[in-house]
Design a protein that fits this description.
The protein has about 240 residues and is α/β, with parallel strands linked by helices. It has one domain: Undecaprenyl pyrophosphate synthetase. It has 8 helices and 8 strands; from the N terminus they run E-E-E-H-H-E-H-H-E-H-E-H-H-E-E-H. It has a 6-stranded parallel sheet with strand order 5-6-4-3-7-8, sandwiched between helices. Strand 1 and strand 2 form a beta hairpin. It is globular. The two termini are about 15 Å apart.
Length: about 240
């Protein structure tokens, strides 16, 4: 779905993306930069996520999709994976979920949920059930997510349903992606100095604007987000027309 619903706010007529995607990269390199254990970089990254997510909704973002853990991240050390799963579990604590619920934010976990620890899967079901009727915003947390895996699972669903070839088009495929029913991201921000999307929303980002920050994710601030929005505001989106 190649549509933009960006919102204009403020004296400078800054465009706020309706759907914002974030690839929060650089936790481990930030820790190394300051001589800290790698795992502390991830902990700091979670703190940054909470701060930036709150600011996004205050600014008028309606859908926020954050790349928390990729399908490729399963190849990391067992120690790091266990630690990350505990962080994700704490991120979905009753206290944190209550905060998002009061703000009217619906929480979705997208990705291969079946690969996650059983207790985390149970918590995800509970969180999605509690927030399912919220209308003020959507928070998609991509866990065990990969863009190629997303497309593959959509194709498998279509084959299983025996949908006729003549009915298969972009709209149909989008319907069976993990982001079903949502508009494509208007803007995708990646931190950490890398300039690629690394298998994040590869179908959905066909016409997304891309913004790359040299900041590592733990040091990314509200001001950095404002700069990204300002840069985005200066672009003219044509969608190939």
């Amino acid at each position: 779905m190649n549509c933009s619903k960006e919102r204009k706010v403020g004296q400078d007529d800054v465009k706020i993306p309706y759907h914002l995607g974030i690839i929060p990269d650089g936790n481990r390199r930030w820790a190394k930069k300051y001589g800290l254990p790698t795992l502390l970089g991830h902990k700091k990254g979670i703190e940054t996520f909470k701060k930036i997510a709150r600011y996004c909704y205050r600014k008028g973002v309606k859908i926020l999709t954050v790349f928390a853990f990729s399908t490729e991240n399963w190849d990391r050390s067992k120690e790091e994976i266990v630690y990350l799963m505990k962080l994700f579990d704490s991120m979905l604590s009753d206290k944190n979920v209550e905060e998002w619920n009061k703000k009217g934010i619906k929480i979705n976990i997208i990705g291969q949920k079946w690969r996650l620890p059983n207790e985390l899967q149970k918590k995800i079901k509970k969180v999605e059930q509690i927030t399912r009727r919220n209308k003020k915003g959507i928070l998609n947390i991509a866990l065990s997510y990969g863009g190629r895996a997303d497309v593959i699972q959509a194709i498998k669903k279509i084959i299983k349903l025996k949908i006729p070839l003549r009915e298969i088009n972009e709209t149909l495929i989008s319907k069976y992606l993990w982001t079903e029913g949502l508009p494509d991201p208007d803007l995708i921000i990646r931190t950490g100095k890398e300039k690629r999307i690394s298998n994040f929303l590869i179908w959905q980002s066909a016409y997304s604007e891309l913004y790359f920050s040299n900041k590592y994710w733990p040091e990314f601030t509200e001001e950095d987000l404002e700069n990204a929005f300002l840069n985005y505001s200066k672009r003219q989106r044509r969608f190939g027309k």
